[in-house]
C-alpha cells in the first residue's frame, strides 16, 4: 500500500512538472521570456518595405533593415537599377560636424525624407528642424524649426455648418454666404447684395458650404435642421501638470440620438431666386452628402444614406428645373456596408458610374448608365470579394482593383491585385503568387512594387509592370536565418468548417518558444469580432503583440468567425442586430477541431481577451458561452451598444433601437456571468464611453457576482499598456494554470528587466 502511494505521488509530481496547468509558480524568468520574444521581430533583415515614389518620375526610394542597420536604397524602374539612395556615411559625418553629436551612419534618426525631382537634393527632419543636403558635395544646411503639430480634430466632433468662409463663383463674379441663416450672394464688382432664401432660421438654417455650378449660373447648398448635441463627460483624476482633477467633455452621438437633417437646395443666379423641389422622401436620413456638380453644369448629385442603413441612393437634381432622378438605388434587407465597401466613380462626367454592391451576395463592381440609372453590366462577378478600387482608366476603359477569394485553394483573405475591362473581360491577376500582396504604384501607373508574404513565409518585394504584372526585378528578399537560429517557429494556419458545415473558418495558432508537445496547454483566444473588417494576421510578422502571453504556458489562437467582413454577404449578415453572436459558434467549433488534431490542448481551460469591440466579445463569451470559455480579460469594451458611438453600432445593430439591443447587452445580461472576469478601462477613454464599463460593474455588483476591475488613470482607449499587460498575464496564470505569478511587490525593477 505504501509503495502504491509513493508511486502515485511520484506520478503526480512528474505530471506537475510536465504540465503548464500544474500548481507550481510561474517565475520571473517566464515573464521575462514573454517580453523578450518580441525581439524576434528585430531578427528579420531585408523585410517588408514601403516604396516612396518621387514625384512623377519612375524612381522610388525605400528604407530597409540590413545587417548594417537601416539602409536607404533608390531604384530606377525604367533602367532597372538599384543603388544606395545617398551616401549615409558622408551624410552622417556632415550632420555630426554641424550638430556636435555622434550619430551612427546606419542608425540616423532622420525622418520625413524627400528628394527633389532631379534627385540632387535630399530633404529631411532631425532634432525638430528641417534640413537640406546637396548630394553633389553633401553640403548640408539646417533650416527652419518644425512647427508644433496642430491639434487634431476629434473624430466625434460635428462640423460647424455656419463656420465656412464665403464661397466665390468660378467666374469670380459672385460670392455666396449665409446671413441671418439665409442664402445671400453679392456681386464682386458691384457689391450689390441679393437675398436668395427667406425661410432660414436658427433651428433650420442654410449651410455655409456652398457648391457653385462650374458655369457659375447656379449655386447649391444643404438646408440643415440641426440636432441636439450629446456629450460624454469624464474626470481625469491624475493630470500630469496639476494636482486637482480635470473634468473633460467630448461630443459623442450614440445610437438612437437625433441627427441633423439636411435637404439639398438650388438657386438660380440669373433669376435671383430659389428653385423649389420636394425632398420629403429623404428626411429619414442617417446622412445626406453635400451637392456635387456635373462638370457640364447640367445638375448635381447627392448621396442619401437612410437611417438604418438599408437604403443608399445616388440622386441627381437637374438644373434648371430641380427635377429629381434616382441614379443608383441600393437596397438591403439587412444592412448596406457603406462604411467599408462603398465606391463610386463617375465616368466621362457621369455618363456611366462604376459602383460597388453586394446585391448578388458578394461585393463586386457594377457599371451603370449615369443618365438613365439602368445597369449596363456587372464588371466583376462570382464567389469572391472586391476589396477596393486602385485606379480607373477611362480612356482604356479598365479598372485596377484588389480582391480576395478569387484564387482556388488559397486563403480566401489573401489580397491580390487585378486589371479588368469595363465590360468584365480581360481579367488579369497582376500578383499571381499565392500570398497576401501589398503594392505601390508609380504616379503614371506604369510600374508598381509588390511586397508579398504570409504568416509562415517572409516577405519578398519585386518591381512589376502594371500592364500585365510581369516581374521586372527583385527589390528585396527577406533574410530570417537569425530568427530561425533561435528556434522560432512560424504561427500555424488552421482551418475547418464552421457552424453551417460548409463554410471555411480560418485562424492562426501561436505556440510558446519552448513548446513541448508532451505538456498540456490551456488555450487563450485573442478576439476582435468587429463586423467592419477581418482581423486574423495574414502578413509575415514573427510575434504579434498579443502572442507574448503564450510564453507563460499557453497556446494562443486568433480566428475570424462569421459576422466579420471580407467574405460573402451571408457570412457578414450573421452579425446583423446580433453582435452578441461574435462568431462564437464558429470559434468554438474551430478550437475543438484544433484540439482533436493536437491532444495537448486542454479545452477545459479556455481563456479569452480583447479590446474595444473585442472587449465586448471577451465578456460576452462568459455570459453566453460559459460552458466553453472559463476566463476572460475585457479591456475598454462597448458593453452595451446603446452606449457606444452611433455610426458603428447603428451600422450593424440597426435603427430604430429595439429589444435586440438589450438582448446583446453585457450590462443587461451581467447576471449570467460564470467564470473569471477581469475588466480594464481607461478613465478618459474617448473612443468608447468609459461609463459602459462602469455600468457593467454596477450590474455585476447588483447581481452579486465576483470579478476584478482595473481602472487606468489618464489612459484613453487602451489594451492596458505595460501594466495592464502584466495584470492580464497574471490573471490567466492564476485561473488557467492554477499557478501563482511572481510577487511583484517584492521584485525590484532590475529583477523585472
Structure description:
With 753 residues, the chain is α+β, with helices and mostly antiparallel strands. It has 3 domains: 14-41 and 487-752, 3-Layer(aba) Sandwich (Rossmann fold); 52-145, no CATH class; 156-342, 8 Propeller (Methanol Dehydrogenase, Chain A). Helix content is 16%, strand content 34%. It has 13 helices and 44 strands. The protein has an 8-stranded mixed sheet with strand order 37-38-40-39-41-42-43-44, with helices on both faces. Strands 13, 14, 15, 18 and 19 form a 5-stranded antiparallel sheet that branches. Strands 20, 21, 22, 23 and 24 form a 5-stranded antiparallel sheet that branches. A hairpin with a 6-residue loop joins β31 and β32. It is globular, with a radius of gyration of 30 Å.
Amino acid at each position: 500500500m505504501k509503495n502504491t502511494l509513493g508511486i502515485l505521488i511520484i506520478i503526480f509530481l512528474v505530471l506537475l512538472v510536465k504540465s503548464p496547468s500544474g500548481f507550481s509558480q510561474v517565475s520571473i524568468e517566464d515573464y521575462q521570456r514573454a517580453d523578450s520574444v518580441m525581439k524576434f521581430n528585430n531578427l528579420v533583415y531585408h523585410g517588408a518595405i514601403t516604396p516612396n515614389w518621387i514625384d512623377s518620375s519612375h524612381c522610388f526610394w525605400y528604407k530597409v533593415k540590413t545587417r548594417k542597420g537601416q539602409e536607404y536604397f533608390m531604384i530606377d524602374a525604367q533602367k532597372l537599377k538599384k543603388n544606395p539612395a545617398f551616401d549615409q556615411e558622408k551624410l552622417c559625418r556632415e550632420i555630426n560636424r554641424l550638430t556636435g553629436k555622434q550619430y551612427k551612419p546606419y542608425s540616423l534618426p532622420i525622418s520625413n525624407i524627400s528628394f527633389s525631382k532631379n534627385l540632387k537634393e535630399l530633404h529631411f527632419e532631425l532634432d525638430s528642424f528641417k534640413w537640406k543636403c546637396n548630394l553633389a558635395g553633401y553640403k548640408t544646411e539646417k533650416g527652419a524649426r518644425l512647427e508644433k503639430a496642430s491639434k487634431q480634430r476629434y473624430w466625434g466632433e460635428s462640423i460647424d455648418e455656419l463656420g465656412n468662409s464665403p464661397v466665390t463663383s468660378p467666374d469670380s463674379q459672385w460670392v455666396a454666404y449665409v446671413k441671418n441663416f439665409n442664402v445671400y450672394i453679392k456681386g464682386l464688382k458691384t457689391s450689390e447684395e441679393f437675398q436668395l432664401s427667406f425661410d432660414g432660421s436658427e433651428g433650420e438654417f442654410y449651410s455655409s458650404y456652398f457648391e457653385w455650378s462650374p458655369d457659375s449660373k447656379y449655386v447649391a447648398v444643404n438646408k440643415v435642421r440641426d440636432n441636439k448635441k450629446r456629450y460624454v463627460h469624464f474626470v481625469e483624476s491624475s493630470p500630469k501638470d496639476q494636482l486637482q482633477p480635470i473634468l473633460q467633455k467630448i461630443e459623442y452621438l450614440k445610437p438612437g440620438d437625433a441627427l441633423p437633417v439636411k435637404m439639398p437646395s438650388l438657386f438660380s443666379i440669373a433669376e435671383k431666386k430659389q428653385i423649389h423641389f420636394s425632398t420629403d422622401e429623404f428626411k429619414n436620413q442617417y446622412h445626406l452628402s453635400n451637392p456635387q456638380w456635373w462638370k457640364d453644369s447640367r445638375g448635381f448629385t447627392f448621396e442619401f444614406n437612410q437611417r438604418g442603413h438599408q437604403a443608399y441612393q445616388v440622386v441627381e437634381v437637374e438644373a434648371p428645373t430641380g427635377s429629381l432622378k434616382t441614379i443608383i438605388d441600393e437596397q438591403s434587407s439587412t444592412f448596406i456596408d457603406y462604411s467599408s465597401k462603398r465606391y463610386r466613380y463617375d465616368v466621362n462626367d457621369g455618363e456611366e458610374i462604376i459602383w460597388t454592391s453586394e446585391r448578388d451576395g458578394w461585393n463586386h463592381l457594377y457599371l451603370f448608365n449615369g443618365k438613365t440609372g439602368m445597369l449596363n453590366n456587372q464588371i466583376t462577378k462570382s464567389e469572391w470579394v472586391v476589396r477596393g478600387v486602385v485606379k480607373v482608366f477611362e480612356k482604356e476603359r479598365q479598372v485596377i482593383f484588389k480582391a480576395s477569394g478569387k484564387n482556388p485553394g488559397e486563403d480566401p483573405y489573401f489580397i491580390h491585385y487585378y486589371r479588368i475591362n469595363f465590360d468584365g473581360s480581360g481579367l488579369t491577376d497582376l500578383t499571381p503568387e499565392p500570398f497576401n500582396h501589398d503594392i505601390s504604384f508609380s504616379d503614371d501607373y506604369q510600374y508598381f512594387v509588390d511586397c508579398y508574404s504570409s504568416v509562415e513565409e517572409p516577405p519578398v518585394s519585386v518591381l512589376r509592370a502594371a500592364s500585365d504584372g510581369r516581374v521586372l526585378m527583385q527589390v528585396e528578399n527577406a533574410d530570417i536565418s537569425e530568427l530561425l537560429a533561435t528556434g522560432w517557429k512560424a504561427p500555424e494556419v488552421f482551418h475547418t468548417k464552421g457552424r453551417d458545415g460548409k463554410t471555411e473558418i480560418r485562424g492562426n495558432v501561436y505556440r510558446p518558444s519552448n513548446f513541448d508537445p508532451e505538456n498540456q496547454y490551456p488555450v487563450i483566444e485573442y478576439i476582435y469580432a468587429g463586423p467592419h473588417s477581418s482581423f486574423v494576421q495574414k502578413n509575415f510578422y514573427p510575434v504579434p503583440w498579443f502572442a507574448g502571453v503564450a510564453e507563460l504556458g499557453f497556446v494562443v489562437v486568433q480566428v475570424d468567425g462569421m459576422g466579420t467582413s471580407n467574405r460573402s454577404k451571408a457570412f457578414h449578415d450573421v452579425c446583423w442586430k446580433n453582435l452578441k453572436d461574435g462568431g462564437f459558434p464558429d470559434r468554438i467549433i474551430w478550437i475543438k477541431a484544433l484540439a482533436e488534431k493536437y491532444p495537448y490542448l486542454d479545452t477545459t481551460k479556455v481563456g479569452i481577451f480583447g479590446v474595444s469591440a473585442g472587449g465586448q466579445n471577451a465578456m460576452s463569451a462568459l455570459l453566453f458561452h460559459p460552458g466553453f470559455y472559463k476566463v476572460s480579460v475585457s479591456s475598454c469594451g462597448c458593453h452595451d451598444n446603446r452606449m457606444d458611438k452611433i455610426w458603428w453600432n447603428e451600422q450593424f445593430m440597426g435603427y430604430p433601437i429595439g429589444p435586440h439591443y438589450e438582448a446583446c447587452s453585457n450590462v443587461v445580461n451581467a447576471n449570467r456571468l460564470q467564470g473569471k472576469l477581469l475588466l480594464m478601462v481607461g478613465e478618459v477613454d474617448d473612443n468608447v464611453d468609459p461609463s459602459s464599463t462602469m455600468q457593467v460593474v454596477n450590474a455585476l455588483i447588483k447581481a452579486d457576482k465576483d470579478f476584478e476591475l482595473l481602472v487606468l488613470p489618464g489612459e484613453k482607449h487602451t489594451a492596458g499598456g505595460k501594466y495592464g499587460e502584466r495584470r492580464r498575464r497574471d490573471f490567466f496564470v492564476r485561473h488557467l494554470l492554477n499557478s501563482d505569478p511572481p510577487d511583484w511587490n517584492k521584485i525590484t525593477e532590475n529583477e523585472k528587466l
